[in-house]
Design a protein that fits this description.
With 310 residues, the chain is an all-alpha fold. It has one domain. 75% of the residues lie in helices and 0% in strands. Helix 4 packs antiparallel against helix 8. The two termini are 23 Å apart.
Length: 310
Protein backbone atom coordinates (compact mmCIF):
# COMPACT_ATOMS: atom_id res chain seq x y z
CA UNK A 1 0.00 0.00 0.00
CA UNK A 2 1.36 3.41 -0.98
CA UNK A 3 1.44 6.03 1.79
CA UNK A 4 0.92 9.61 0.69
CA UNK A 5 1.61 12.35 3.21
CA UNK A 6 -0.60 15.41 2.83
CA UNK A 7 2.52 17.42 1.98
CA UNK A 8 3.09 15.31 -1.16
CA UNK A 9 -0.45 15.99 -2.39
CA UNK A 10 -0.08 19.70 -1.64
CA UNK A 11 3.16 19.76 -3.64
CA UNK A 12 1.39 18.22 -6.64
CA UNK A 13 -1.49 20.68 -6.25
CA UNK A 14 1.02 23.54 -6.29
CA UNK A 15 2.44 22.15 -9.55
CA UNK A 16 -1.11 22.10 -10.98
CA UNK A 17 -1.57 25.77 -9.97
CA UNK A 18 1.66 26.74 -11.73
CA UNK A 19 0.91 24.70 -14.86
CA UNK A 20 -2.62 26.07 -15.05
CA UNK A 21 -1.51 29.69 -14.87
CA UNK A 22 1.33 28.95 -17.30
CA UNK A 23 -1.29 27.88 -19.84
CA UNK A 24 -2.12 31.57 -20.27
CA UNK A 25 1.57 32.38 -20.71
CA UNK A 26 1.89 29.69 -23.37
CA UNK A 27 -0.99 31.20 -25.31
CA UNK A 28 0.43 34.70 -25.05
CA UNK A 29 3.87 33.54 -26.22
CA UNK A 30 2.47 32.45 -29.60
CA UNK A 31 2.24 36.10 -30.65
CA UNK A 32 5.99 36.70 -30.30
CA UNK A 33 7.92 33.44 -30.61
CA UNK A 34 7.74 30.05 -32.32
CA UNK A 35 6.55 27.02 -30.34
CA UNK A 36 9.82 25.06 -30.54
CA UNK A 37 11.97 28.08 -29.76
CA UNK A 38 9.77 28.93 -26.76
CA UNK A 39 9.83 25.36 -25.46
CA UNK A 40 13.59 25.12 -25.89
CA UNK A 41 14.33 28.38 -24.09
CA UNK A 42 12.02 27.75 -21.17
CA UNK A 43 13.31 24.24 -20.53
CA UNK A 44 16.90 25.42 -20.66
CA UNK A 45 15.98 28.14 -18.17
CA UNK A 46 14.29 25.50 -16.03
CA UNK A 47 17.48 23.43 -16.13
CA UNK A 48 19.45 26.48 -14.98
CA UNK A 49 17.08 26.95 -12.02
CA UNK A 50 17.54 23.32 -10.96
CA UNK A 51 21.32 23.55 -11.44
CA UNK A 52 21.59 26.62 -9.19
CA UNK A 53 19.50 24.88 -6.52
CA UNK A 54 21.65 21.75 -6.71
CA UNK A 55 24.88 23.75 -6.42
CA UNK A 56 23.54 25.35 -3.24
CA UNK A 57 23.17 21.98 -1.49
CA UNK A 58 26.24 19.83 -0.64
CA UNK A 59 24.36 16.54 -1.08
CA UNK A 60 23.08 17.61 -4.48
CA UNK A 61 26.55 18.72 -5.58
CA UNK A 62 27.66 15.14 -5.07
CA UNK A 63 24.72 13.94 -7.17
CA UNK A 64 25.68 16.38 -9.93
CA UNK A 65 29.22 14.99 -10.10
CA UNK A 66 27.86 11.50 -10.81
CA UNK A 67 25.63 12.53 -13.73
CA UNK A 68 28.23 12.18 -16.55
CA UNK A 69 29.03 8.58 -15.55
CA UNK A 70 25.55 7.45 -14.48
CA UNK A 71 24.36 5.80 -17.70
CA UNK A 72 20.98 4.61 -16.33
CA UNK A 73 20.24 8.17 -15.19
CA UNK A 74 21.28 9.62 -18.55
CA UNK A 75 19.08 7.11 -20.38
CA UNK A 76 16.12 7.80 -18.09
CA UNK A 77 16.49 11.59 -18.25
CA UNK A 78 17.11 11.50 -21.99
CA UNK A 79 13.96 9.46 -22.56
CA UNK A 80 12.01 11.86 -20.37
CA UNK A 81 13.40 14.78 -22.35
CA UNK A 82 12.31 13.30 -25.68
CA UNK A 83 8.82 12.49 -24.43
CA UNK A 84 8.40 15.89 -22.79
CA UNK A 85 9.59 17.67 -25.95
CA UNK A 86 6.99 15.84 -28.04
CA UNK A 87 4.17 16.52 -25.57
CA UNK A 88 4.87 20.20 -24.92
CA UNK A 89 5.62 20.99 -28.58
CA UNK A 90 2.35 19.37 -29.67
CA UNK A 91 0.46 21.36 -27.07
CA UNK A 92 2.19 24.60 -28.02
CA UNK A 93 1.60 24.12 -31.76
CA UNK A 94 -2.02 23.13 -31.22
CA UNK A 95 -2.75 26.28 -29.22
CA UNK A 96 -2.30 28.27 -32.44
CA UNK A 97 -5.13 26.40 -34.17
CA UNK A 98 -7.75 25.75 -31.52
CA UNK A 99 -9.65 27.35 -28.68
CA UNK A 100 -8.19 27.42 -25.19
CA UNK A 101 -11.34 25.64 -23.99
CA UNK A 102 -10.86 22.77 -26.44
CA UNK A 103 -7.17 22.50 -25.59
CA UNK A 104 -7.84 22.45 -21.86
CA UNK A 105 -10.38 19.65 -22.10
CA UNK A 106 -8.50 17.42 -24.54
CA UNK A 107 -5.15 17.74 -22.76
CA UNK A 108 -6.81 16.86 -19.45
CA UNK A 109 -7.91 13.50 -20.82
CA UNK A 110 -4.76 12.07 -19.28
CA UNK A 111 -6.67 12.03 -16.00
CA UNK A 112 -8.50 8.93 -17.23
CA UNK A 113 -5.85 7.66 -19.68
CA UNK A 114 -3.26 7.22 -16.91
CA UNK A 115 -5.22 4.70 -14.80
CA UNK A 116 -6.36 2.89 -17.97
CA UNK A 117 -2.75 2.59 -19.17
CA UNK A 118 -1.78 1.62 -15.64
CA UNK A 119 -3.94 -1.51 -15.98
CA UNK A 120 -1.68 -2.65 -18.82
CA UNK A 121 1.34 -2.15 -16.53
CA UNK A 122 -0.35 -4.19 -13.75
CA UNK A 123 -0.91 -1.16 -11.49
CA UNK A 124 -3.73 -1.56 -8.97
CA UNK A 125 -5.64 1.69 -8.64
CA UNK A 126 -7.79 2.56 -5.63
CA UNK A 127 -11.55 2.95 -6.04
CA UNK A 128 -11.36 6.56 -4.87
CA UNK A 129 -8.83 7.38 -7.58
CA UNK A 130 -11.05 5.89 -10.31
CA UNK A 131 -14.11 7.80 -9.08
CA UNK A 132 -12.09 11.00 -8.70
CA UNK A 133 -10.67 10.64 -12.22
CA UNK A 134 -14.12 10.23 -13.77
CA UNK A 135 -15.52 13.21 -11.84
CA UNK A 136 -12.51 15.34 -12.83
CA UNK A 137 -12.89 14.40 -16.51
CA UNK A 138 -16.62 15.20 -16.54
CA UNK A 139 -15.97 18.42 -14.66
CA UNK A 140 -13.32 19.46 -17.16
CA UNK A 141 -15.81 18.85 -19.97
CA UNK A 142 -18.35 21.24 -18.44
CA UNK A 143 -15.61 23.73 -17.59
CA UNK A 144 -13.93 23.86 -20.99
CA UNK A 145 -16.45 22.78 -23.64
CA UNK A 146 -19.75 24.46 -24.46
CA UNK A 147 -22.74 22.86 -26.14
CA UNK A 148 -21.35 23.81 -29.57
CA UNK A 149 -18.17 21.73 -29.27
CA UNK A 150 -16.41 21.44 -32.62
CA UNK A 151 -13.28 19.61 -33.74
CA UNK A 152 -10.58 22.03 -34.88
CA UNK A 153 -7.26 21.21 -36.51
CA UNK A 154 -5.34 22.08 -33.36
CA UNK A 155 -7.39 19.59 -31.33
CA UNK A 156 -5.48 16.68 -32.84
CA UNK A 157 -2.23 18.14 -31.49
CA UNK A 158 -3.81 18.37 -28.04
CA UNK A 159 -4.86 14.73 -28.27
CA UNK A 160 -1.25 13.77 -29.06
CA UNK A 161 -0.18 15.80 -26.02
CA UNK A 162 -2.70 14.02 -23.78
CA UNK A 163 -1.52 10.59 -24.92
CA UNK A 164 2.17 11.42 -24.49
CA UNK A 165 1.62 13.10 -21.11
CA UNK A 166 -0.12 9.92 -19.94
CA UNK A 167 3.08 7.99 -20.62
CA UNK A 168 5.06 10.74 -18.95
CA UNK A 169 3.11 10.54 -15.70
CA UNK A 170 3.43 6.75 -15.62
CA UNK A 171 7.14 6.79 -16.35
CA UNK A 172 8.00 9.54 -13.87
CA UNK A 173 6.66 7.36 -11.06
CA UNK A 174 9.11 4.64 -12.07
CA UNK A 175 12.29 6.64 -12.62
CA UNK A 176 11.75 8.93 -9.63
CA UNK A 177 12.06 5.90 -7.35
CA UNK A 178 15.38 4.86 -8.88
CA UNK A 179 17.31 8.11 -9.34
CA UNK A 180 18.00 11.36 -7.53
CA UNK A 181 14.93 13.50 -8.43
CA UNK A 182 16.82 16.74 -9.02
CA UNK A 183 19.51 15.07 -11.13
CA UNK A 184 16.80 13.32 -13.13
CA UNK A 185 14.96 16.63 -13.65
CA UNK A 186 18.15 18.37 -14.76
CA UNK A 187 18.94 15.75 -17.42
CA UNK A 188 15.31 15.75 -18.58
CA UNK A 189 15.17 19.53 -18.96
CA UNK A 190 18.47 19.79 -20.82
CA UNK A 191 17.44 17.00 -23.21
CA UNK A 192 14.03 18.55 -23.87
CA UNK A 193 15.46 22.03 -24.30
CA UNK A 194 18.26 20.90 -26.62
CA UNK A 195 15.90 18.89 -28.84
CA UNK A 196 13.44 21.77 -29.11
CA UNK A 197 16.14 24.34 -29.91
CA UNK A 198 17.66 22.14 -32.64
CA UNK A 199 14.24 21.77 -34.26
CA UNK A 200 13.63 25.52 -33.92
CA UNK A 201 16.85 26.32 -35.80
CA UNK A 202 15.55 24.48 -38.84
CA UNK A 203 11.85 25.41 -38.85
CA UNK A 204 11.45 28.76 -37.08
CA UNK A 205 12.90 32.29 -37.32
CA UNK A 206 15.41 32.94 -34.53
CA UNK A 207 16.00 36.51 -33.37
CA UNK A 208 16.88 38.49 -30.28
CA UNK A 209 13.81 40.63 -30.90
CA UNK A 210 11.49 37.65 -30.46
CA UNK A 211 13.27 36.67 -27.24
CA UNK A 212 12.94 40.20 -25.90
CA UNK A 213 9.25 40.39 -26.80
CA UNK A 214 8.47 37.05 -25.16
CA UNK A 215 10.80 37.48 -22.18
CA UNK A 216 8.06 37.72 -19.47
CA UNK A 217 6.38 34.48 -20.56
CA UNK A 218 9.75 32.77 -21.06
CA UNK A 219 10.77 33.68 -17.51
CA UNK A 220 7.48 32.50 -16.05
CA UNK A 221 7.28 29.37 -18.17
CA UNK A 222 10.93 28.51 -17.57
CA UNK A 223 11.57 29.37 -13.93
CA UNK A 224 8.18 28.35 -12.51
CA UNK A 225 6.43 25.99 -14.92
CA UNK A 226 9.58 24.01 -15.71
CA UNK A 227 12.15 24.70 -12.99
CA UNK A 228 9.71 24.49 -10.09
CA UNK A 229 6.57 22.59 -11.21
CA UNK A 230 8.19 19.81 -13.26
CA UNK A 231 10.75 19.26 -10.51
CA UNK A 232 7.91 19.05 -7.98
CA UNK A 233 6.36 16.40 -10.19
CA UNK A 234 9.46 14.21 -10.14
CA UNK A 235 10.00 14.67 -6.39
CA UNK A 236 6.34 14.10 -5.45
CA UNK A 237 5.81 11.08 -7.67
CA UNK A 238 8.54 9.30 -5.77
CA UNK A 239 5.77 8.68 -3.21
CA UNK A 240 2.52 8.90 -5.22
CA UNK A 241 0.95 6.47 -7.67
CA UNK A 242 0.59 7.63 -11.30
CA UNK A 243 -3.23 7.51 -11.28
CA UNK A 244 -3.52 9.48 -8.05
CA UNK A 245 -1.02 12.05 -9.32
CA UNK A 246 -2.96 12.41 -12.59
CA UNK A 247 -6.13 13.38 -10.73
CA UNK A 248 -4.33 16.15 -8.84
CA UNK A 249 -2.35 17.34 -11.85
CA UNK A 250 -5.57 17.54 -13.91
CA UNK A 251 -6.61 20.41 -11.65
CA UNK A 252 -4.37 22.54 -13.89
CA UNK A 253 -7.44 22.95 -16.13
CA UNK A 254 -9.36 24.46 -13.25
CA UNK A 255 -6.52 26.84 -12.40
CA UNK A 256 -6.12 27.72 -16.09
CA UNK A 257 -9.75 28.86 -16.14
CA UNK A 258 -9.18 30.95 -13.02
CA UNK A 259 -6.00 32.44 -14.50
CA UNK A 260 -7.88 33.29 -17.68
CA UNK A 261 -10.47 35.10 -15.58
CA UNK A 262 -7.86 37.04 -13.60
CA UNK A 263 -5.38 37.82 -16.39
CA UNK A 264 -7.43 37.84 -19.59
CA UNK A 265 -10.77 38.92 -18.18
CA UNK A 266 -12.55 35.77 -19.33
CA UNK A 267 -15.80 35.00 -17.54
CA UNK A 268 -17.08 31.68 -16.19
CA UNK A 269 -20.62 30.60 -17.07
CA UNK A 270 -22.84 28.62 -14.73
CA UNK A 271 -21.92 25.56 -16.82
CA UNK A 272 -18.22 26.24 -16.21
CA UNK A 273 -18.75 26.81 -12.50
CA UNK A 274 -20.59 23.47 -12.33
CA UNK A 275 -17.56 21.89 -14.00
CA UNK A 276 -15.26 23.46 -11.41
CA UNK A 277 -17.40 22.00 -8.63
CA UNK A 278 -17.22 18.54 -10.18
CA UNK A 279 -13.43 18.77 -10.48
CA UNK A 280 -13.08 19.79 -6.86
CA UNK A 281 -15.40 16.93 -5.90
CA UNK A 282 -13.17 14.55 -7.83
CA UNK A 283 -10.12 15.82 -5.97
CA UNK A 284 -11.86 15.37 -2.60
CA UNK A 285 -13.14 11.89 -3.47
CA UNK A 286 -9.64 10.88 -4.54
CA UNK A 287 -8.35 11.99 -1.14
CA UNK A 288 -11.11 10.75 1.14
CA UNK A 289 -12.73 7.64 -0.36
CA UNK A 290 -11.20 4.55 1.28
CA UNK A 291 -9.37 2.13 -0.95
CA UNK A 292 -6.10 0.29 -1.34
CA UNK A 293 -3.69 1.48 -3.96
CA UNK A 294 -0.59 -0.36 -5.05
CA UNK A 295 1.79 -0.15 -7.98
CA UNK A 296 3.22 -3.40 -9.23
CA UNK A 297 6.61 -1.76 -9.73
CA UNK A 298 7.08 -0.49 -6.18
CA UNK A 299 8.77 -3.60 -4.74
CA UNK A 300 11.13 -3.76 -7.71
CA UNK A 301 11.95 -0.07 -7.42
CA UNK A 302 12.58 -0.44 -3.72
CA UNK A 303 15.05 -3.20 -4.38
CA UNK A 304 16.98 -1.03 -6.83
CA UNK A 305 15.98 -2.66 -10.12
CA UNK A 306 15.76 -0.54 -13.24
CA UNK A 307 12.40 0.80 -14.44
CA UNK A 308 11.09 3.34 -16.93
CA UNK A 309 10.21 7.02 -16.40
CA UNK A 310 9.36 10.13 -18.29
Amino acid sequence: MTRRPVLIDLMMLLAAVIWGSAFVAQRLSAHDIGPFFYTGLRFMLGALVVLVFCLALPAQRRALRTIPTDLPLLRAGGLLGVITAVAISAQQIGLQYTKVANAGFITSLYVILVPVMGLLARHKTATGTWVGAVLAMIGMYFLSVDEHFTILSGDWYQLVCALVISFQVLLVSRFARQHDPLALSLVQFVACGAISLVVAVFVEPISLASIHAAMPVILYGGALSVGVAYTIQVVAQKRASPAHAAVIFSMEGLFAALAGWLVLGETLSLRAIFGCALMLAGLLVCQLLPGREHDAHVPAAASGSVAVDV
